[in-house]
């Protein structure tokens, strides 16, 4: 394993190459076990969630036709917020991962699905499935880390610009769907030079996002408000609120996935010639879970099982809970830090990191020499400070 | 009226905006699955057991259905263990049902995924997916004076559809039907009734005691064999033998056959992969993914992660057989299936045709 951990204690120093490959084999076996039983239950589950989501959305929007009355506003807004969260997380995200492609139902297929989000599904699938899931937590390759605008690691050079990163992060949380659209377009990189700006693929992508934004805005801020007649302004406010709630929620959940204390990041050079076992190991160490109730898992689209999701991105998310038991045992067997904690704790931990890294380092970070890792500390002093 | 049409279109566009990013009919599907004009479905209205192994499903097709011609088949999309599988079934009922209902008769084959599922689980109220009727195993508008139907096993189904629809227009019809035993004859009672009424001449052959029907037997059973316009449906070997027999007699055009099992897919190692739209054909070895093989041949292939997680590389397989290189699972597609296959983790396990 060539992974150079940017941590004081190398959490994998005690593993031999053979260990890593057997971790890979054990995880492959877990995947096969789920594949063997995947079927009717999973199909019925996603159809049910879609049905609940659509019914909730329709009825909330119906209630909002009367949003001029405060109780209707509150009930409708709450319902719509939940519906939008479900739509993005448990339904959209998971379908776009191809988790339900096995059903061969063109209505529920990753290549056909479009979601309630300003970024078109196709672009999101590129940046998320192709880049983030493949290059998880590799600095410079996985832009999910800080979305290119934040300092996410002690070893990243500090610049006064980063002082404001808690503010960027907050604004990004409020308008997360636009942040994701900008990020999927790689705006930062593509706006730099004239050549990049006029690249036909980029132009086409910008146009597609424009069309998507127009439809989304028309729907939430013109059509539905217009339908509600005298409640026009109240419905606008309700839809705006629901979008913000959904944005903040998904931002928080996603921040918990790779940001909390105890999660490792990786060097670009470390993934050259990576084996399957090493790829798995990077997913294990680069992700963090959120503990909580069943409802909590559903509302996070099972991204609360971020570790399991990163190991098996295309298995139906509703299977993660049962897989997690075995995955956790594997972590224990190989003495690896399984980072998890309740949502508030993880969110706080992630925010603390954002704030801490907005300032220059107190002491220079020390990279661990992979050739001579500090061995047994890991067991005695786990890096997984799940606070 | 152009004005009302414009208004209608405008109103529809507003409705589409109400439901964007999904289409309005997706919401309709929640309450009325048969009303969707873009997705043809049918509700099972009744299930009749024909033999131990065969059931007839009475289907009420939803919006978008077009009537069939006797002898044609429909493709049913049935969700078996959560996976939509498409299979062809001949219409066995008479054409022209007042409410547009049709029946199909499914004979469970050994280890047959869909046919056994339908035999065991088809219930009133079940919704299946449907394709428009297709097939040219039909009786021409100008009805033949003398006709012959040679069927075996479930091959009787399209013929039953023809007889039920057209019997009064077929003045001299002979039916030669083979089944293992008298009890195994699907539609046995109907056929015998037609014979008793003198509408057909029925030759029943029970292969358990009489052995399989050979073309030579036909010369005896039906002396004016080659004068008859003939429709045959049954196992492949039987149809092959018939085709040869008619060709030898120089009257190949008199014989119309329907095969229930056009291609037998057996998983092998590697195969010829055809990208139909681009007109490229390549040899794809068993140990190489179709993505790699395609690219190696200069084909521009869509791809992303190249490790099976992003689904950017999926292509519709019209027909063929592939093996998942990770776990060895085999996926097959027959004509019309268009199964979406991840090329980055699939190797050819036989000839494959991609709609790409
Ligand atoms: C034009 C057309 C019309 C058809 N009409 C009818 C009909 O009216 N009634 C009907 O019952 N079937 C009909 N079939 C056959 C039907 O489409 C399916 O092939 C059949 O039901 C088996 O599907 P399965 O999923 O149960 O079997 P699978 O799970 O696909 O196959 C299981 C095993 O059975 C073998 N097998 C597959 N098909 C057949 C077959 N037809 N006969 C024998 N063995 C087979 C396979 O090689 C495999 O070993 C028709 C097929 C065609 C092409
Ligand atoms: S290229 Fe990503 S799944 Fe095939």
From TrEMBL, chain A:
Residue ranges crossing the lipid bilayer per the database entry: 63-86
Segments of skewed composition (Low complexity): 377-387
Domain Fatty acid desaturase intervals: 73-340
Domain of life the protein comes from: Bacteria
Keywords for the protein's UniProt record, in alphabetical order: Membrane, Transmembrane, Transmembrane helix
Stretch list, region Disordered: 364-387
Name of the protein described by the UniProt record: Fatty acid desaturase
Taxonomic path: Bacteria, Bacillati, Actinomycetota, Actinomycetes, Micromonosporales
Automatic annotation (TrEMBL), chain B:
Pfam families per record: FAD_binding_6, Fer2, NAD_binding_1
Keyword Flavoprotein: yes
Statement: the UniProt record of this protein carries the keyword Nucleotide-binding: no
Coiled-coil residues: none
PROSITE patterns hit by this protein: FAD_FR (PS51384)
Alphabetical keyword list: 2Fe-2S, FAD, Flavoprotein, Iron, Iron-sulfur, Metal-binding, Oxidoreductase
Cofactor(s) needed by this chain: FAD
InterPro entries: 2Fe-2S_ferredoxin-like_sf, 2Fe-2S_ferredoxin-type, Beta-grasp_dom_sf, Cbr1-like_FAD-bd_dom, FAD-bd_FR_type, FNR_nucleotide-bd, MRET, OxRdtase_FAD/NAD-bd
FAD-binding FR-type domain residues: 37-140
Protein name: Oxidoreductase
Natural source organism: Actinoplanes palleronii
